[in-house]
Amino acid sequence: MGIAVVTIANDFSAINVALPTMESDFDTNINTIQWVVNAYALTFGVMIVTGGRLADMFGRRNAFFLGTAIFASMSALGGAAQSETWLIATRTLMGIGGALMWPAILGMTYALLPEDKAGLAGGIVIGAAGLGNAIGPLIGGVLTDALSWRWIFFLNVPISAFAVLVTHRLVRVTEPDPGEQRIDYAGIAALSVGLVSLLVALDQVDDWGFGDPRVIGLLALSVALLLAFVPIERRAGTSALVPRAVMANETFRASCLAILLMSATFFAALLYLPQFMQHQLAYSPLEAGVGMLPFLATFACVSFVAGPLYERLGAKILASVGALCITIAPFAFSLVGNRSHYTSLIVGMVVLGIGIGSFYPTATTAGVTSVDESQTSLAGGIVYMFQIAGGSIGLGLTTMVFSAQGSFVEGIEAAFRLDAGLSLVGFLIALFFVGGHLVSRRNKPDSTPSA
After folding, report:
1. Among 130, 212, 261, 360, which one is most buried in terms of CB atoms within 10 A?
2. DSSP string spanning 103-152?
3. Is the pLDDT of residue 302 over 70?
4. pLDDT(448) > 80
5. Higher pLDDT, 346 or 451
6. What CATH number should be reported for the domain whose range is 245-435?
7. CA distance 69 to 280
8. What tens digit of pLDDT does each residue of 178-225 get?
9. Distance CA 296, CA 273 (A)
């Protein structure tokens, strides 16, 4: 399961360092070639809830095998791409494969380990994702320089084959009977188109501006469809894409909302810290990728440690400490100046890595384990959707604040101050609600137990 997660997460970050080479090879521009990254991330974020629901309905092993087959075959075609359009199309389909794989992996990992090791399951999955994000720029840089960017895609094929072979031989989990299951097509359509509209609008706001009719139209369409999603799900009953029991779960909602707010800082750090290194410190793309290691490596290492700590300390303490670190880090980044050196970023990156590594596995586990075991893949998909949505919304707001400033450094300072404010709200939610209430509510039989 961990190897499969590393492959998916690595694909988010390895491609970034190869974009200039792709741009040159295809004789295109950065606005077009950027969709090699955007198409994958957008499709993945939009389809992951559907992938989780299908995994719970028709079997997590089945969803994993289908998703991996799509991911690997499209990776092979992407490596052989002869045009940017061909490559972007394969990346879109790779996103569908990843959206089937991720929630199936999460559901199988929680099912494979005993209930008292749920924190370990979350730590393994999120830690593997952090490892994939950390090594992605290094792998992408080495393969692009030594061989070709095409090998970033070709490498996915044998790794995926290995993951499928091991899962087929060793992973045994209880699977549902798909006989009476019905797919909620209306719910899938409303949620998917609504999210696509939202994410595309936020992605393009830097180029078009918030007042552009295209942005306003996409946001209006998104709001209309996401509002319509609620009554559609009520009418769908037990076949709903997101069943009422999941939507009504207070602990699960708290985890999702906290992750939504924290993701603004996470995504902003991934975007603006490398830009600061390149624009202000004159680093090369590969040097900027290496420069992110104090953040990404700490994130990966702490995620693996967070699993055992979850069992000892509980969700409340671990999530609150992690959320506090995520709140402190952007405030530290906001203090950078024109004369700042790389060393001025290291403490903030390490603190952020500790925060992300302890908060995300804990909040994910607290949320996923609060729902019925038959819905864990769906719950995992929804949690990740909130992470993508929070990051995209946060980046849209951050970019607007960044662009309104007079200089690059002033923009960085203002952007991270905004992220610190959003993270503070997320910290308060984590402190009072994630993993149960800070003060237990006695004499109330409907109180949600601590995860």
Report:
1. 360
2. HHHHHHHHHHS-GGGHHHHHHHHHHHHHHHHHHHHHHHHHHHHHT-THHH
3. yes
4. no
5. 346
6. 1.20.1250.20
7. 42
8. 555 677 788 888 888 888 888 788 777 766 777 788 888 888 998 998
9. 12
The domains spanning 1-178 and 245-435 adopt the same CATH topology: yes
* Whether 200 contacts 39, CB under 8 Å: no
* DSSP state, residue 447: P
| pLDDT mean across residues, the chain | 82
For residue 236, CA distances in Å to 181, 229, 232, 352, 398 come to: 12, 10, 6, 41, 37
Asked if residue 322 has pLDDT above 90, the reply is: yes
Q: What angle do CA 96, 100, 102 make, to 5 degrees?
A: 115
Q: Which long-range contacts (CB under 8 A, 24 or more apart) does 52-55 make?
A: 52/103, 52/104, 52/106, 52/107, 52/377, 52/378, 52/379, 52/380, 52/381, 52/382, 53/184, 53/241, 53/242, 53/377, 53/378, 53/381, 54/100, 54/183, 55/100, 55/103, 55/104, 55/107, 55/377, 55/378
Spatial distance between the Cα atoms of 335 and 410, rounded to a whole number of angstroms: 10
Is residue 445 pLDDT above 60, yes or no?
A: no
Q: Is the pLDDT of residue 337 over 80?
A: no
State whether the Cα torsion 184-185-186-189 is positive or negative. Answer: positive
Q: Which two tokens stand for residue 309?
A: 């700590």
364 within 8 A of 255, measured Cβ to Cβ: yes
What does the pLDDT read at residue 353? Answer: 92
3-state helix, strand, coil in the chain (%, to 5): 80, 0, 20
pLDDT for res 74: 93
Determine the residue type at 213.
Answer: P
pLDDT of residue 321: 93
Q: Which token pair is 219?
A: 């946001």
All residues at 6 or more sequence positions from 145 whose CB lies less than 8 Å from its CB, including other chains = 286
Token duo for residue 185: 């097509």
Q: What are the domain boundaries of the chain? A: 1-178, 185-240, 245-435
| Amino acid of residue 11 | D
| Long-range residue pairs from 205-210, CB within 8 A, at least 24 positions apart, any chain | 205/396, 205/399, 205/400, 206/399, 206/403, 207/31, 210/400
Fold of 1-178: Growth Hormone; Chain: A; (1.20.1250)
